Amino acid sequence: MNFPVQAISSKISADELRAVDQPIEQARGMPNAAYIDQELFEFEREHVFASNWVAIAFVDQLEEASVKPVDFMGLPILISKTKRGEVKVFHNVCSHRGMKLVQEQKKTNGLLVCPYHSWTYSLNGELKATPHIGGVGVHQADGFQCANHGLKEIRCHIWLGIIFVNLDRQAAEFEQDANGVIERYRKLMGDSGEPSIRCAATDAGLTMDLECNWKLAVENYLEAYHLPFIHPSLNTYSPLAEHRNEIFGEKCAGQITSTFDPKLDSDNPLPLFPDWDKSRLETGEYPAVYPNVLLGFQANHLFAMIIHPLSPTKCREELMIFYVSDEANSDRFTDTRRANLQAWTQVFNEDVGPCERMQIGRNSPGYLGGAFSPVHDTCSHHFHKWIARQYMQYYAEISAS
Ligand code: FES
Ligand SMILES: [Fe+2]
Q1: Whole-prediction pTM value?
Q2: CA 142 – ligand 1 centroid, Å
Q3: Which domains are delineated in the chain?
Q4: C-alpha distances in angstroms, 71 versus 62, 134, 358?
Q5: 347 C-alpha vs ligand 2 centroid, how far in Å?
């Protein structure tokens, strides 16, 4: 979708974007319009989300030979997992007359039949059958090649059990694009880290709907400043004073704490990442991978949160927790897994109110992007600058064309 720069810049001017991209002491945040305006929401779909690698789901949400439809900011998308466990992503639209192909998540016999005229696809997206296309009882037609009419595939990549897609196909390879953050966490978890993660067998996650723009959920995650005020319980076992901010590259930043010890498994310790630095067992790292993934790394578990933008003023958070090895999923740790999910649920629930009240604040003409703490908000500012640059890049491209 093309957005004339005049239409967008009448809502957010280049001067307002430049005000974001300033040293933190003088910088403002993104203007209110970016949090409330429907046209800017659609603009961000095209020029923040489609042009980058974005998370849409977790691999473990699908069993073998099943499909899961995802509504991504109004775009119908389909994830398939074949009998052999291969994941593919397609536009969820039939190649014939464009009906949305799959309405709900389901197990399949390996075939997807469009309800309208029964065109049939494999889970690899190949068009396999076109009943009566050439007349009643004639299932082929001269000049019609099934091979030209399969489902339209979307570029995807899996990292840490998260399915990322790049809708415009223009982004660099995921491994290159997210190189800094991948390398950092490969080192922290060790080479054996990613292969050993297992989606929690029980109490694996939660879904929360928030009445706020998706960016507020990211911004809230990027600072620990609010920790003593909003998370008094978390602050006892992971205090603000032990946190620091770090930038991990162009599109990743977050909190690192040297002390995270909720003492949930003291009597019955969960398996640890085997190569995790034993001198840093209480380290917790909480990066956001822009635009819409929040991660939490601890020595005995990992969590990932996908933020799904639903409208300018609504988003959905989907959390999944992963443990280390099959052993961690045994009955021996059922109570620990439950306690861990409860602890994180409390933390994430505590964040909902502030995010929703920041959203209300975005309706105020008395708020012009606000200010940043030069000490605590360096990651939030980094994210704001990244967003502002996505806008500015578009302004520059359109002005040059
Ligand atoms: S629209 Fe799907 S078979 Fe006709
Ligand atoms: Fe928080």
Answers
A1: 0.96
A2: 18
A3: 63-157 (2.102.10.10), 179-379 (3.90.380.10)
A4: 16, 33, 26
A5: 6
